[in-house]
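Structure ticket #2291
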Amino acid sequence: MKKSLWLATPLLCAVLAASVVVWSNQSVGDPPTEAKELIEKYERDAREIQEKADQALAARRDNLIADLKKLEQTYLNAGKKTAARVVSEQIALLKEGGVPVQGIV
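Resolution: structure written out below.
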């Protein structure tokens, strides 16, 4: 009995996998008009929110770059060339669209 179950296991797995693929590819059709309108409104709202967030983040990034430039100059004036170089590298990362590394200065 154990041997027959062991032999049947790959076949059962294949049948189960095939049924999952068929089930997941089935479409329920187009949503009703009211549902489409709600979905479209959500998508419009999401785009607006994303645009506002992108603008706010860009402004914050610009302010951060300005503050980091001041800090870089402060380090240079104090003779802390290594710290100034690290801050300068962070500024370059921000300008390229990257995120500065935390806890390095």
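Closing remark: Residues 1-8 have pLDDT under 50 and may be disordered.
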